[in-house]
Specification:
It is a single chain. By secondary structure, this protein is an alpha/beta fold. The chain has eight helices and nine strands. Helix 6 links the parallel strand 6 (164-168) and strand 7 (196-201). The longest helix has 26 residues, at 244-269. Bound molecules: adenosine-5'-diphosphate. Adenosine-5'-diphosphate (ADP) is lined by residues 26, 28, 30, 32, 50, 52-58, 222.
C-alpha cells in the first residue's frame, strides 16, 4: 500500500466522476464536508473509510444526486445534467417492498422508467443470476435471510446497468461470515462486469480486502485525510485475508485511521 503516491495506472484510466472542493453545510449549521476532492476511476473499488460523522454518507449522497453540495463542483466527464440513471445505490438496510416478490423488487427501477414486467424480464433474471438468486424470483423478502435480502438489494441497484455503484455500509448489519461471503461475491461480480464501486465502511479489514484504493476521512469538518492503495492482484480469494500483505495493508490503514481520528480530536480541542 502506498500513501498518496501518484499511480501511473490511474493516470491512464478514465474518470467516472470527480468532486472538486466540495463543501456541505446542513441547515443545522453542521459542517459535514469541507474542501473534498475526489476522483473515481472506471473499474475500481474505492472505499471511503472513516469514523462515524466524517461525512462518508453525505459525500455518497451528493455523488448520487440525493443531496446538493453547498459549495464546489461534481464533474461528470460524460457531460449532461441529470446523472440519476448513471448511479445505483445500495443502502445499509435492503429497503425492499415486503408485499412484492423478489422479481418485482428488482424490477422496480425499470418499472419507474416505464419498462414493462415482460420487457424487464431478461435483465431482472440476469441480475438475480449474478447474485445467486435466480431460483428465488418468486419468493418474498420475509422468506429470505438477511444476506439474501442484501443480494436482492444489490440486484435491484445493478438491473439498469449503472456506470457507478454507490454502497453505503451495505454489509454492516450482517454477521461476519455472511459479510465475508458478500465481500467475495461483490468482488467477483465487479470483476466480471467491470463495475466502478464506491464503498462506504468503517471497517479497516473490509476496506483493505475489497478495495483498490482507500480514502481515509477525518471528521469535524469531514474531509479526505489520506489516500492508500492496495496493490494486491485481482481476483482476490479468501486466502488473501491470511496473507502477510493483507496484514501489512491493514496495519497501515489502521494507523492512518487512528491518525485521522487523532487529528479530528485536536480540531475539537481547538489546537
Ligand atoms: P458518516 O457517514 O461518515 O457517519 P454523515 O455523512 O452521515 O457521516 O454525517 C456527517 C455529519 O453531518 C455528521 O455530523 C452528521 O450528524 C451530520 N448530518 C448528516 N446528515 C444530516 C442532516 N440531514 N441534517 C443535519 N446534519 C446532518
Amino acid at each position: 500500500m502506498n500513501q498518496a503516491a501518484p499511480n501511473p495506472a490511474q493516470a491512464a484510466r478514465k474518470t467516472v466522476v470527480s468532486l472538486r472542493d466540495v463543501g456541505k453545510v446542513f441547515s443545522s449549521g453542521t459542517l459535514a464536508l469541507q474542501h473534498l476532492d475526489l476522483d473515481i476511476y472506471q473499474g475500481e473499488i474505492l472505499s471511503l473509510l472513516g469514523p462515524s460523522g466524517c461525512g462518508k454518507s453525505t459525500a455518497l449522497r451528493i455523488i448520487a444526486g440525493l443531496g446538493d453540495a453547498s459549495s464546489g463542483r461534481i464533474v461528470w466527464p460524460s457531460g449532461g445534467e441529470d446523472h440519476s440513471g448513471d448511479v445505483g445505490f445500495v443502502f445499509q438496510e435492503p429497503t425492499l417492498m415486503p408485499w412484492a416478490s423478489v422479481f418485482d423488487n428488482v424490477w422496480l427501477p425499470s418499472r419507474l422508467k416505464g419498462i414493462s414486467r415482460a420487457a424487464a424480464r431478461d435483465s431482472v433474471m440476469q441480475a438475480l443470476d449474478s447474485v445467486g438468486l435466480h431460483a428465488f424470483a418468486e419468493a418474498y423478502p420475509r422468506e429470505l435471510s438477511g444476506g439474501m435480502r442484501m443480494r436482492v438489494s444489490i440486484a435491484r441497484a445493478m438491473v439498469t446497468r449503472p456506470k457507478l455503484l454507490l454502497m453505503d455500509e451495505p454489509f454492516a448489519a450482517l454477521d461476519e461470515i455472511t459479510r465475508q461471503k458478500l465481500n467475495d461475491d461483490l468482488m467477483r461480480i465487479q470483476h466480471e462486469l467491470g463495475w466502478t464501486v464506491v464503498f462506504v465502511t468503517h471497517s479497516v479489514f473490509e476496506s483493505v480486502y475489497i478495495s483498490d484504493r482507500i480514502v481515509v476521512m477525518a471528521a469535524r469538518p469531514g474531509r479526505a485525510f489520506a489516500e492508500l492503495r492496495v496493490d494486491a492482484t485481482r481476483p482476490r480469494s479468501p486466502e488473501f485475508r491470511t496473507s502477510a500483505a493483507y496484514v501489512d495493508h491493514c496495519r497501515q490503514a489502521s494507523a492512518t485511521l487512528t491518525a485521522a481520528i487523532g487529528r479530528a480530536a485536536e480540531t475539537i480541542d481547538g489546537h
